[in-house]
Design goal:
The complex is a heterodimer of chains A (about 140) and B (about 375). Chain A has helices spanning about 5-10, 10-45, 45-90, 95-105, 110-120, 140-145, and strands at about 125, 135. Chain A has a two-stranded antiparallel ribbon. In chain A, helix 3 (about 45-90) crosses helix 5. Chain A has about 140 residues and is mostly helical. Chain B has one domain. The longest helix of chain B is centred in the C-terminal third of the chain and has 29 residues, at about 280-310. The chains are: A mainly alpha (about 140), B mainly alpha (about 375). At the A-B interface, helix 1 and helix 2 of A face helix 8, helix 9, helix 15 and helix 21 of B.
């Protein structure tokens, strides 16, 4: 068999078209891969700089988050300070923590347990070492902090 | 005693030779002449030429002398050709010898190597149209890859009976690259195009050169696994070269191994061209198709370079397309020669090496594809 018939019979057109397409695909992919090697190596060589940059970005983000949480905490604590001070003045020092909580509930303080806990953490209310608590005299300094 | 003498005389080459042996011995002598006097691929044409002489000394069958007799020394040596061992080892040497910097500096030029492989598949169609069986057609088509080891490798797998004519055609045309390519290059390009200068390639780092053989091997062989014996050795050889720590192995691959294998390959391929096997109408068809294949491959590369210029901001010299045929480094030298004929200050050699080397990879992929299509 000869001519175009022979090509068609032996599936020549398909083999040729597919063959050249695969060769092209292979070399195109290789050229794309090769073109990226030096870019990837550049990134690898400057990896310390990039890691620092990424760390800085995360550090800034974390600072912002902690600042905002500190801010919200201090706002909450500041609000509770005046309320608690009135109650403690009324009870007298040293005072028991359960009584302060009871009074706080009675006078309508929102979330008295967590608020008083915040005041303890912020150093407004300090233990006297005998099972009772005192109002910290340096409260103004602490508020500024 | 007289009988013994007569019997001896009847067994000599003089008594058994016919005109076909004379023709083949003449061809062998021409090859040796071209290699020595004209310096056309001497490392290949001299062994092949002498191999033709060896293969065409008439011997009587049964004594275990001829290459096609199963117990002969030549037959054992020829096993390296038919099994694909020699081409693979030559690729190892090529890899250990080749600097891929130019290709890494401008990977877009690899597309020219891909375009030139069109010659393989068009010749494949041409061979089918001329009545060759598909496996024979594929083996003939690969001549267009202009890569001797690849042509021998594929022929050994698909059409071992055609290795002789295919190898001789491939190496003959590779030796004639400086004669075949320039007229096509001038015909398909304008003077203005030939004067285009290429910008200096960027400097390629050692790390890039080290990573390339691994990435290149994995990518190419995952796409065309049948190219594994050739491309595996090519990229392995290149890794030996670039890693520096295995310099002894790289040195062996690019000197003693490739030299030994070239001698054995050339000699046995030459010896396979015995007159009764070689001088057939098929061989004439193979030579005609081989020439057409070279022409189509060169033209495809050139035309694709012109096509790429339609889209590229910084134009490339379309002569580089001719280097897409993988006759390393001859076709790149021809590009340099034709380019400098127009402008002596235009240096295209290093740029031409990129499509030239990608042509080697492309033709090996092409061979792998044809083998996977037809090898079953």
């Amino acid at each position: 068999m000869f001519g175009l018939d022979a090509i068609s019979t032996h599936n020549g057109w398909h083999m040729a078209a597919l063959g050249i397409s695969i060769v092209f695909t292979g070399l195109v992919l290789l050229s794309i891969a090769v073109a990226q090697i030096h870019k990837i190596l550049q990134i690898y060589d400057k990896r310390d700089t990039y890691i620092k940059r990424i760390k800085n970005i995360f550090r800034k983000k974390n600072n912002l988050e902690s600042n905002s949480s500190d801010l919200s905490l201090s706002e909450k604590v500041n609000g509770a300070v005046s309320q608690c001070r009135i109650l403690i003045d009324k009870m007298g020092e040293p005072f028991s923590l359960p009584r302060l909580i009871n009074l706080s509930e009675k006078y309508g303080m929102s979330h008295p347990y967590s608020t008083i806990n915040d005041l303890i953490n912020a150093g407004f209310i300090v233990p006297d070492g005998k099972g009772y608590f005192l109002w910290n005299q340096d409260d103004k300094k602490i508020i500024r902090l | 005693m007289e009988n013994l003498l007569m019997e001896f005389i009847s067994n000599t080459g003089f008594a058994m030779a016919d005109y076909r042996h004379i023709i083949m011995i003449t061809i062998g002598i021409i090859f040796i002449y071209l290699g020595i006097a004209k310096h056309y691929e001497p490392l290949l044409l001299i062994p092949i030429g002498f191999g033709i002489l060896i293969g065409n000394v008439p011997v009587f069958k049964g004594l275990g002398l001829g290459l096609y007799e199963s117990n002969s020394v030549l037959h054992y040596l020829y096993f390296g050709v038919t099994s694909g061992i020699y081409p693979s080892l030559i690729f190892l040497g090529i890899g250990a010898h080749t600097d891929f910097s130019t290709l890494l500096a401008r990977p877009v030029l690899m597309l020219l190597g891909a375009a030139a492989q069109t010659g393989i598949f068009i010749t494949f169609l041409g061979a089918l149209a001329l009545g060759f069986a598909p496996k024979e057609a594929a083996s003939i088509g690969i001549i267009g890859g202009a890569d001797g080891p690849t042509a021998i490798f594929l022929s050994g797998k698909l059409a071992p009976h055609l290795i002789g004519p295919i190898a001789v055609a491939a190496y003959s045309y590779m030796a004639l690259v400086p004669v075949i390519q320039p007229p096509i290059m001038k015909l398909l390009t304008t003077r203005k195009e030939r004067l285009i200068t290429m910008e200096e390639p960027r400097i390629v780092s050692k790390k890039e050169k080290l990573i390339f053989p691994v990435i290149g091997f994995l990518l190419c062989c995952f796409i065309a696994p049948a190219a594994l014996p050739l491309l595996g050795m090519l990229f392995f050889g290149n890794l030996l070269r670039e890693c520096v720590v295995a310099e002894r192995l790289a040195q062996a691959a690019r000197t003693s191994i490739i030299d030994t294998v070239t001698i054995l390959l050339g000699l046995t391929v030459g010896a396979s061209t015995q007159a009764d096997v070689f001088l057939t109408p098929q061989s004439v068809g193979i030579f005609i198709l081989g020439a057409a294949s070279f022409v189509v491959a060169t033209a495809s590369g050139l035309l694709f370079a012109k096509f790429m210029n339609l889209f590229l901001r910084k134009k490339i010299n379309p002569l580089l397309g001719a280097a897409g045929v993988s006759a390393v480094p001859d076709s790149a030298r021809v590009v340099q020669m034709v380019g400098q004929a127009e402008d002596p200050t235009n240096f295209l050699l290093m740029h031409a090496m990129a499509p030239n080397i990608s042509g080697v990879i492309g033709s090996a992929i092409g061979a792998g594809i044809l083998w996977s299509f037809l090898g079953g």
